[in-house]
Amino acid sequence: MDKYKFYYYDGRGNGELCRILLAYGHFEYEDKRFPKEGSPDLKSFLRKAPMRQLPVLEKDGDMLCKAPVIARYLAEILNLAGQTTWQQAKVSMHVQATFDLYKDLKSVEDATGKPRAIAWKKFQDEFLKPFLENYNKLITEDKCTWLVGDEITYADLAVAEILSLLADCYDPDVLSDNDNLEAYVKRVFDDPNIKDSLEQVELIGAITPSPYDVTFAARTKEVIHKVFKTEDILITGEIFPGFL
């Protein structure tokens, strides 16, 4: 059996989908984690990475970069990429939409202090709301169990994971007006194989919620409100290192 090493930051981000797929497939792999930025080990590693960036999947000394590429490679091995070429294209469409949203979210991560709240509001209005409206429509109008075909694919994992991350790390009410989407995310994570995979993924940081633990996020926000006397705080890795 092939042995893998997966290199990414010590957080979820756009590498978490790859970790879930590695666990789902019971791959034999090492989960190599770097601090967020500035580590000498990270700088040294990136000099030999093909694209000079994380995440990286290594197999027998050979390296593969770019999260969407790694995720697709793993999903194809696991038969989670769609049954026909048309389905595979549709699955890729949904997965790419989630990685586009990760890129849009970076403006929030790069901001600090009050500008972070402004960046979050802009992200919500310009990117998140259209994303939620679109996927709520897809789930509701098509009355589908899964996004593509009759079986779960890694498109479902990708969409559920980014919505889970937003609820856990930014706003526990992110799906409060989207009951169908909330039920969909729960359905993905309640799938027995997915649930087993998530239990295998190492928890991140000293305090880490399980995927889509809205109760945890709500409790955290309540504590922050009591301590800082404000509602205008984003629950992010800036407060709890390792969240993202």
TrEMBL record:
- The GST N-terminal domain extends over 2-82
List GO molecular-function terms, semicolon-separated.
Answer: glutathione transferase activity
Q: Which Pfam families match?
A: GST_C_3 (PF14497), GST_N (PF02798)
Q: Which domain of life is it from?
A: Eukaryota
Q: Which InterPro entries match?
A: Glutathione-S-Trfase_C-like (IPR010987), Glutathione-S-Trfase_C_sf (IPR036282), Glutathione_S-Trfase (IPR040079), Glutathione_S-Trfase_N (IPR004045), GST_C (IPR004046), GST_superfamily (IPR050213), Thioredoxin-like_sf (IPR036249)
Q: Which residues form the GST C-terminal domain?
A: 84-210
Please give a single GO biological process term from the UniProt record: glutathione metabolic process
Family annotation (Gene3D superfamilies):
1.20.1050.10, Glutaredoxin
This protein is called what?
Glutathione transferase
Natural source organism:
Soboliphyme baturini
Q: What is the lineage of its organism?
A: Eukaryota, Metazoa, Ecdysozoa, Nematoda, Enoplea
